[in-house]
Amino acid sequence: MKDVLDKLEERRGEARLGGGQRRIDAQHARGKLTARERIELLLDRGSFEEFDMFVQHRCADFGMESQHIPGDGVVTGWGTVNGRTVFVFSKDFTVFGGSLSGAHAAKITKIQDMALKARAPIIGLFDAGGARIQEGVDALGGYGEVFKRNVTASGVIPQISLIMGPCAGGDVYSPAMTDFIFMVKDTSYMFVTGPDVVKTVTNEVVTSEELGGASVHAVKSSVADGAYENDLEALLQMRRLIDFLPANNLDGVPELPSFDTLDRIDMSLDTLVPDNPNKPYDIKELILKTVDEGDFFEIQAKFAGNIVTGFARIEGRSVGIVANQPMVLAGVLDSDASRKAARFVRFCDAFSIPIVTFVDVPGFLPGTAQEYGGLIKHGAKLLFAYSQCTVPLVTIITRKAFGGAYDVMASKHIGGDINYAWPSAQIAVMGAKGAVEIIFRADIGDADKIAARTKEYEERFLSPFVAAERGYIDEVIMPHSTRRRVARALGLLRHKASETPWKKHDNIPL
Ligand code: HXC
Questions:
Q1: Confidence class for position 443, pLDDT limits 50, 70, 90
Q2: Can you tell me the distance from the alpha carbon of 29 to that of 94, in angstroms, rounded to the nearest whole number?
Q3: CATH class of 2-243
Q4: Gap from CA of 15 to ligand 1 centroid (Å)
Q5: Looking at residue 59, what is its pLDDT?
Q6: Which of 335, 471, 483, 463 is nearest to 396 (CA)?
Q7: Cβ contacts of residue 437 below 8 Å, gap of 6+?
Q8: HSE toward the beta carbon, residue 247, CA cutoff 13 A
Q9: Residues paired with residue 319 on neighbouring β-strands, in sequence order
Q10: pTM for the full model?
Q11: Which of 132, 196, 316, 436 gives 20 to 30 Å between its CA and that of 64?
Q12: Which protein residue has the closest C-alpha to ligand 1 atom 30?
């Protein structure tokens, strides 16, 4: 028996070496960890259970019949993150560049099926060169099997992709169908076709970083939800993210011990909004002062900064935060901000995460660039997403809530459950200047009359009270009591039930 056990250890040792020490050293020299080292950091110590360590490809073309490396370029299994089950697959770049064969795909789909059966999140760590070129259609078919499962699991279990090296060809589309994509700065890139193909087809000369690095996807394209300095930081942040997420769509949000007090008031919030309505202030200050321990996990921090999205906790329970940011473009809603927030809102709703919305929005961004870019359709995405929510919606208007953007930002009319306004709120069709120039056009030459009309408009409409008189706002609250108000509202709504008519699925404007 000892020989048998020794043989097993030997085979395990061989599999753990992947593509061999030379390639492991090359991986380290590039500042990257190996597939197994990454899993060790992602999961609780000693919790990883590996599957299919000895799986090999079955390709007999182009000399592959003599090249067999146990595991075939992907490490798969499950373990725990702070005690909660997650499934994981980690592409091993040292084995055939992490490329996907039929056998490699079968390892991933096994893990996808198990994650769905166990109703637990799945995390994919990517560092790969796309379809295994020697395998041809077996590799393409393998990708199709993975994609189909991504879609089946969407909205049932959280799916997270972390890009930690090259991610090309077929490898980009599976992440694209997961809930979140994060990247590592300078060492990872994602593109459908690489720089060489780009040059051949379009004559454009571009580097990998310029084409698909974190500086592109976390800032310009919005393909990625965030980027980290190195492998270590990225993996530790994934552990933090998992702590905010439910295991599945029926499990409810995780509840962690809170070291913050429910009744904490913050007098500094009474002076957060400047006297001058055109002066910006940082909405993140309000977010951090409202949530437990100021702990906020921001999603897409570097893209469409005019809206802030992310996860936090109130009384130890996860919430999604959506907030207009007056510091960027005065917090206006444009196409990018609408798309960003709509996707976040839909994630929260799919996984029963209540949403707290902070509103200070001067309206939708006017202009040909926005209209030609489909602002109507993109704005409608956010309107649709909020209107469709069945999770608790708590809304606080801090200052401007103008025009259609008032309706969109989780107003009472589209399903807001508890809607509060600060005394500094201004709820109107538009700001005073624009309004007076339209409805008192005849007086435009008379400065005194215009000043009087502007004052009249401001006094009547630029306050929360017209909306409060009609019940569109449940209460005008003291800014310093925002945390307590939000926490009590969420407590009230904890068992919210709402019915929607049966349908196969909706037709959100894509
Ligand atoms: C087989 C591959 C491979 C692949 C890399 N390797 N990609 N083997 N199939 N797709 C192997 C290399 O031969 C090499 O083996 C090792 O992995 C490391 O690769 P290098 O090129 O030395 O590394 P590097 O210089 O870092 O470049 C990494 C890379 C490059 C940018 C990913 O390898 C590359 O461009 N690969 C091809 C990418 C691609 O076009 N894939 C197909 C996409 S089409 P040795 O033995 O020398 O170490 C696709 C279709 C699916 O995916 C569509 C579904 C919708």
A1: confident
A2: 13
A3: alpha beta
A4: 21
A5: 80
A6: 483
A7: 444
A8: 16
A9: 312
A10: 0.95
A11: 196
A12: 129
Question: Strands 317-324, 355-361: parallel, antiparallel or unpaired by DSSP?
Answer: parallel
Burial of 221 (0-12, 13-18, 19+ CB in 10 A): exposed
Percentage of the residues of the chain whose pLDDT score is greater than 90: 86
Helical residues (DSSP H) of 130-194, grouped into ranges: 137-153, 173-176
The residue type at 475: E
3-state DSSP call for residue 388? helix
Q: Is the ipTM of this complex over 0.95?
A: yes
DSSP for 389-408?
--S-EEEEEEEEEEHHHHHH
For the chain, the structural domain boundaries read: 2-243, 267-425+463-492, 431-462
Summarize pLDDT for 310-362 with one digit per residue, the tens. 999 999 999 999 999 999 999 999 999 999 999 999 999 999 999 999 999 99
Take atom 29 of ligand 1 and give the residue whose Cα is closest.
129
Residue nearest to atom 13 of ligand 1 (CA): 96
Mutate to test the pocket of ligand 1, among 21, 25, 99, 206 (most ligand atoms within 8 A of CB): 99
Closest by Cα among 33, 107, 118 to 84: 118
**CA 239–ligand 1 middle distance (angstroms):** 29
| DSSP β-ladder status, 159-168 and 180-184 | parallel
Of 60-64, 124-128, 491-495, the one with minimum mean pLDDT is: 60-64
- In the reported structure, the alpha carbon of residue 303 is separated from the centroid of ligand 1 by a whole-number distance in angstroms of 30
Q: For residues 474 and 420, is the Cβ–Cβ distance under 8 A?
A: yes
Catalytic (active-site) positions: 169-170, 404-405
Burial label for 192, CB within 10 Å (0-12, 13-18, 19+), is middle
Cβ neighbours, 10 Å, residue 250: 10
Q: Quick check: do 2-243 and 267-425+463-492 share a fold?
A: yes
